[in-house]
Amino acid sequence: MASLELKNIVKRYKSHTVLDDLSLTVADGETLVLFGPSGAGKTVLLRLIAGVIDPDEGKILIGGEDMTDVDAEFRGIGMAFQNFALFPHMSAFDNIATPLEAKRSSQGAIKAGVESVAKLLKIAHVLSHKPRALSNGQKQRTALARALVGSPPLLLLDDPLRNVDAKLRFEMRLELPRLLADRGATVLYVTQDYKEAMALGDRIAVMSQGTIRQLGTPEQIYREPANIEIARLFGDPTINLLDVKPARDARGVYVGLSNVQVHLAEAPETAIGRDCIIGLRPEALHFVGENEPGAIPVTVEAETPLNEKIVTLVRTVRGREILVSRPAGTAGRDEGKAHIAVDGKSALLFDHSSGERIGAKNVVKLRNGEAA
Amino acid sequence: MEHTSLIERILRGLALTLVVIFFMFPILWIFMMSFQTNETILRIPPQLIFEPTLANYTALITGKLMTAAGTLDIAFMRNLWNSVFLSVTSVAVSLLLGVPAAYAFARHKFRGSEDIAFTLLSFKFAPALLVLLPLTLYFQKLGLANTYIGLIWVYQLICLPLILWIVRGYFEDIPADIEYAYRIGGHSWFATFRKIALPLAGPGIAAAGLLAFIFAWNNFVFALVLASADKQPVTVGALAFITSSGIQYGQISAAIVLSITPTLALALYAQRYLVEGLSLGAVKG
Q1: What predicted TM-score, i.e. pTM, was given to this entire model?
Q2: At B103, which helix (H) or strand (E)?
Q3: DSSP codes, B138-157
């Protein structure tokens, strides 16, 4: 059993507060992704959990046991670093073997353990090489193998795919979830890549400026982002954001986009009459005929085919630029005048000044990280 | 193009030759003098062609100095042994104390750590002569004057700051993540120091040790004041060649050749080790 519980963690460097009263619970066997821009405090948080730096305030519980003052070597954690942090003077085999040596395993057990994890990660053929002679992909797999070899109940992975090329990252993104699930370990995974976060996480904690801004399943983060910042970070192409002032008529709440009234399903009453920003995912927009209800006239500016989807940049009559995404092979316009319609159900409304999503359940106020 | 590059090559060769001759000439001249008698050395004009003699070296090794005034006993081999013993022991003690201290200064920022490190460095700022008088008095009270232990202790002023500051830089260059990784793997901080930090800072420790050895070997003034004849290193021992019947240039030259040989050999041997440097291929640069 290795659930992880962080209680009101504070970490300061001089006057700068890196982690500000952060609390978080990760269930046994869960994979939680820490997602956020650089400088959000993700790496510092992992190091606190690993025990190589100490928090100024707060408690760290691993498997229900208070580990706040326990030295790193007694916490039973596996960790992979963004820069691999391999021991340059040891072969890949010796690198991977170090956690087993610490447990005073027999030579035979060490050899068996290293070889089985090396086979799993497909690096069995380079075990005799020094890190210098390994490719980036092999270094990364060696670092992962070293983290996994002792079968630690808690795994900390600090952006392990950051320094490997795109092809390998894609491969590992497919491989890792199965690998982690097989181990049954509790995993804390740090990344700056939203696709990685969506692919790997049972839940995602979005961090910024030392606190958790939103905690939820990948689906929740994508569909109901707590604020504009999070809405922007998740999704490719980026979400369209337009200034609007919602109003109400007989058919419900609507917003005016290029003099066309677009009715929003499930729009909160509180938004009426306020200065808002509407967030429209590119895939929530589609091309329609001129006479369809809610058709907004636009001019097509550019079209970018991206294999599985086509992204079109269009300009409204007011000169605002909008991205429209559609699956490849479906009809659309690639030049001249066109009309688009909005799927009113998936539109997101944000407060103009605070950037918080209007109607979000109290996730917005979530300073302590626990999901509402 | 071909023409200019040829001239360039010739000029460059010429310039290099001049530089080498300029810097190496004194050493070459001393080397030549060591195979000559005082008469041939002092001949005017000086001559490049002479009949080489091993008399100077025999005199040094047997310890019998033949002068116009008679035979003189000199303790050159004893001095050479003192130099080796004092330098090696001083560097060893400095490494033993300095390397762990350097690691502490590099990895643990504790209250006043910068001040302590700087104080240790400042020992090198003080003029040796200023320190020597009070030191001599204390050493006489403590019974440390004219002992190996006392000399080795004083030599720490030369070796320790050097080793501390050079090795500290090397420890700081090791990415902290590498050490964290070892600790998280389940090893104590001492095991991490021994198995990770020490091997990775190895070239730096060797370089610092070598430099400290050369400085200790070349020290003159501490040994001059604090040691009597039987504890003196070669630097002080060479004074014995200024005799009542004149300066023994041939023997001095031979003594210099013999005394720079160990440091030269050590430097040549350690060179490849020093140049190798830290190569941390495991961490993306």
Answers
A1: 0.79
A2: helix B76-107
A3: HHHHHT-TTSHHHHHHHHHH
Domain B76-276 belongs in CATH node 1.10.3720.10: yes
Domain extents for chain A?
Answer: 4-227, 232-359
Q: Which CATH class is domain A232-359?
A: mainly beta
What confidence tens digit (pLDDT) does each residue in A147-190 have? 999 888 999 999 888 877 888 888 888 888 888 888 888 999 99
Domain extents for chain B? 2-73, 76-276
Kindly state whether B277 is in contact with chain A, defined as any CB-CB distance less than 8 angstroms: no
User: Count of CB atoms within 10 A of residue A182's CB?
Assistant: 9
Cβ-nearest to A85 among B175, B186, B191: B175
CA B136 to CA B145: how far, in whole Å? 7
Mutate to test the interface with B, among A54, A75, A83, A135 (most CBs of B within 10 A): A83
Residue among A7, A8, A22 at smallest CA distance from A213 = A22
Among A52, A77, A84, beta carbon nearest to B282 = A84
Q: Using the beta-carbon criterion (under 8 Å), do B177 and A85 form an inter-chain contact?
A: yes
Residues of A in contact with B199 (CB under 8 A): 89
For B174-217, the pLDDT digits (tens) are 999 999 999 999 999 999 999 999 999 888 888 889 889 988 99
ipTM of model over 0.90: no
Interchain pair B186, A73: CB under 8 A: yes
The whole-angstrom distance between B17's CA and the closest CA on chain A is: 40
Give the nearest partner residue to A86 out of B184, B191, B282, using CB atoms.
Answer: B282
Set of chain B residues whose Cβ sits within 8 Å of the Cβ of A139: 282
The burial of B220, by beta-carbon neighbours within 10 Å (0-12 exposed, 13-18 middle, 19 or more buried), is given as: middle
The second-level CATH assignment, the architecture, of A4-227 is: 3-Layer(aba) Sandwich (3.40)
